[in-house]
Specification:
Shape: elongated
Oligomer: single chain
Radius of gyration: 22 Å
CATH superfamily: Immunoglobulins
Number of strands: 9
Largest sheet: 4 strands, antiparallel
Structural class: alpha+beta
CATH architecture: Sandwich
Strand content: 35-45%
Order of helices and strands: HEEEEEEEHEEH
């Protein structure tokens, strides 16, 4: 059997795959911001929170989603993670609010406490929120938000 037909088939499939990638929409990334954190009932040593996100779509096409996953790092350590199977759509050039339940395990809280005791600083704690908004075969959009937290004010409110 000659390899010529097999090579032609492979070349045709490669050209088809490359042209299909060019048809994928060129989207700007979503603008994601945390707008609230509320306590939820937990189980055992677990702490639960509802993280409220504002999702802004800067594109001229709507974005449909079928789930979201989040990881929250504080002081370069994983603090909380969560998932939600919420479905919805964010219209073109519009925004939506999404609430995602996250869990903080006892071990994650202990790691954070040990990290804070070593640094002795409650101001300018770096945080990073990473996540993905699932939306079909090629529609998953990843996002990231970074900033700093100042817990000195919260420290004074404890007593």
């Amino acid at each position: 059997m000659s390899l010529r037909p097999l090579r032609s088939l492979f070349a045709s499939l490669l050209i088809l795959a490359v042209s299909a990638c060019a048809l994928l929409p060129d989207r700007d990334p979503l603008n994601i911001s945390v707008v609230g954190i509320e306590p939820l009932p937990g189980q055992g040593l677990e702490l639960r929170m509802a993280v409220t996100l504002r999702l802004q779509n800067p594109n001229d096409t709507a974005i449909d989603y079928s789930g979201v996953a989040l990881d929250l790092d504080v002081n370069d350590r994983l603090l909380a993670s969560g998932v939600s199977n919420q479905k919805g759509s964010i219209g073109s050039f519009s925004e939506a609010v999404l609430v995602v339940p996250v869990s903080v395990s006892a071990f994650a809280a202990l790691r954070q406490a040990l990290g804070l005791s070593q640094s002795q600083r409650l101001d300018n704690l770096p945080y990073e929120l990473r996540g993905k908004l699932a939306g079909g075969l090629f529609g998953t959009m990843r996002f990231k938000d970074r900033g700093t937290l100042d817990l000195r004010q919260a420290e004074g409110d404890l007593w």
